[in-house]
Amino acid sequence: MNYPAFLKLDGRQVLLVGEGEVIERKAEPLVRAGAVLRRAPHFAPALLDGCALAIGADAPDADLFALSEAAQARGIPVNIVDRPALCSFIMPAVIERDDITVAVSTGGAAPVLARMIRQKIEAVLPPLIGRVAALGARFQAAVRARLPGLPERRAFLERAFTGAPAELALAGRQAEAEAAFTAMLDAPTAPTGMVFLVGGGPGAADLLTLRALRLLGEADVIVHDRLVGDDVLAMARRDAERIFVGKSRANHCLPQDEINALLVRLARQGKRVVRLKGGDPFVFGRGGEEARACAEAGVAFEVVPGVTAALACAAQAALPLTHRGVARMLTFVTGHTKDGRLDLDFAALARPGQTLAVYMGVATLRALHEGLTRAGLPASTPAMMIENGGTPRQRELRGALSAIVAEAPDWVQGGPALLLVGEAVGEAISRPMRVTEPA
Ligand code: SAH
Questions:
Q1: pTM of whole model > 0.70?
Q2: Domain interval for residue 355
Q3: Are 222 and 289 part of one and the same domain?
Q4: Do the Cβ atoms of 359 and 336 come closer than 8 Å?
Q5: Ligand 1: which of 209, 227, 319 to mutate, most ligand atoms within 8 Å of CB?
Q6: DSSP state of 285
C-alpha cells in the first residue's frame, strides 16, 4: 500500500534528467503547478541541491541509477519513468477539473489499468465540477457563520452540492448558482428540488449523453413517457421512484397541464426530478411547456439535449440528412393533428434541395402526400420510413414517396416511425457486406 499525497511545488526547484519526449511530457504539469524546472541531459549530484523533487527518463541507465540512488539518500522524492524499482514515488493517472484533481494509482503494478480507470472517471465527472468547488470556496465563510455546528454544516453542504446550486454551476450558469446558494443559506432547511428535462435519445442506452446518464443515476424521481424504452430506464438509479405519464398519439394518459403540475409539485418537495423524454425534449416533446411551467412556478430547471429521432434514424440508415449539392436544408415537421387536417406550409415543404423529417406522420400520410405533390414535389421523390430507429429493433422501408405512402400504414408494427423525404434519401449509402482490407 502506498500513501497518497499531493505536493505543493509552487516556486520550488524540480530536477528533470534526460532528453526526449517522455521527460518532455513530465514538464508541463510541473510548470502548471508552479515548479521551477532544472533540466539536464545527464545526472550530476550537485544538480539535486535545493530540489524538492526529481524525475528521470530518456537518459543512459547509469545516469538514471545514480539519480535514483542519490535522491533517495538525500530524501528527495524521485521517479524514474517506467522503472518502479528506482522510484520513491509513483506518478498517478490524473483527472483534472480546475482545482479538483483525482489521482489513480495501481501502486505501480499496472499503469495501463490506471489509465483505463482514469478514462472511466473522466466520463462520469462533469467537466465543470471545478465550478462547484469554486462555489463552495466562495461561500465558505458565509456557511461557517450561518451554520457554526459541523453536523449541520456538513448536511447543508451535501444538499447544496447535490442540489440546484451545484447543478446550475455544472451547467455554467454561475450567477444563478450563486443566487440559489444564497437562497439556501437564507433558508437552510427549505426544500431545494430541481427539474431536469432530459432527452433520452431514440432508445439505445448508449446513445444517452454523459450528462443524461449522470442525472439518471442521481435522480430521486423519474417521470417518463411511453417513448422511453427499458434499456434507457435501466440506466437510472435503482431506488429512484418512477412515474409513467404515458402519452401515445391517441391516448394521452396524463394531460400535459397535469404533467406540468406534477413536475412542479415534486420539485417543491425537494426532489431531483428527471423528466425523461424520447429523443430531444425540445423537438416535438412539449419540453417548452414544461420548462415554462417550472419557470413560472419559480422552480429551477435545466434542459439536457438528446439525440432526436431524425438524427438517429438517418445515422442507422447511413443517410446524410444534408448532402453537398443535394440537400442544403433540413426541416423537422410534425404530421400530428387534432382534427385530421394537416395545416402545413406545403409550398415551403415541397421546395427542392431539402430533406423533410416527418415526426408523428403515419396517421396523416395521405394528406401529407397530397399536400406535397399538389405543391409540386414529384411523387417519385425518394423516401424512407424508419420504425424504432436508433435501436436494435430498427426497420426500414425505402421507395418513392408515393409507394411509401401506400405501403407504410400496413408495414408499421406499432413502434414510433419517422418519415424522411428528399433527394438526400436517395443518397443513403449502402454498406459493404464484408469489410475488406485495403489493397
Ligand atoms: N422528442 C422526440 C420526438 C417525440 S414525437 C424526438 O426528439 O425524437 C414522437 C415521434 O417521434 C414519433 O411519432 C416518431 O415519428 C418519432 N420517433 C421517436 N422515436 C423514434 C424512433 N426511435 N424511431 C423512429 N421514429 C421515432
A1: yes
A2: 315-427
A3: yes
A4: yes
A5: 227
A6: S
CA dihedral for 177, 181, 183, 189, sign (positive or negative): positive
**Residue showing cell 457486406:** 433
Q: Does 384 contact ligand 1 (Cβ within 6 A)?
A: no
| pLDDT tens digit at each of 439 positions of the chain | 789 999 999 999 999 999 999 999 999 999 999 999 999 999 999 999 999 999 999 999 999 999 999 999 999 999 999 998 999 999 998 998 888 899 998 877 788 898 899 999 988 889 999 999 999 999 999 999 999 999 999 999 988 998 899 999 999 999 999 999 999 999 887 878 899 999 999 989 999 999 999 999 999 999 998 888 888 999 898 899 999 998 555 555 789 999 999 999 999 999 999 999 999 999 999 999 999 999 999 999 999 999 999 999 999 999 999 999 999 999 999 999 877 789 999 999 999 999 999 999 999 999 999 999 999 999 999 999 999 998 888 999 999 999 999 999 999 999 999 999 999 999 988 887 766 666 5
Does ligand 1 come within 6 angstroms of the Cβ of 193?
no
Does residue 262 fall inside a structural domain?
yes
- Is 8 noted as a catalytic residue in this protein? no
Q: Ligand 1 centroid vs 126 CA: distance in angstroms?
A: 28
* 232 ligand 1 Cβ < 6 A: no
Strands 78-80 and 51-56: parallel
Give the Å distance between the CA of 329 and the centre of ligand 1.
20
Same domain flag for 303 and 339: no
In short, whether 279's Cβ falls inside 6 Å of ligand 1 is yes
Question: Residue 173: inside a domain, yes or no?
Answer: yes
Active site residue 271: no
- Same-domain check for residues 291 and 355: no
Q: Which of 26, 247, 271, 277 is catalytic?
A: 247
* Catalytic hit among 63, 220, 225, 280: 225
What's the CATH code of the domain at 418? 3.30.950.10
Phi, psi angles (nearest 5°) of residue 169: -65, -40
Ligand 1 contact via 416 beta carbon (within 6 Å): yes
Confirm whether 229 is domain-assigned.
yes
Number of H helices, E strands in the chain: 15, 16
Give the Cα separation of 278 and 309 in Å (integer): 8
Q: What are phi and psi of 291, to 5 degrees?
A: -60, -45
Q: Ligand 1: which residue has its CA nearest to atom 13?
A: 360
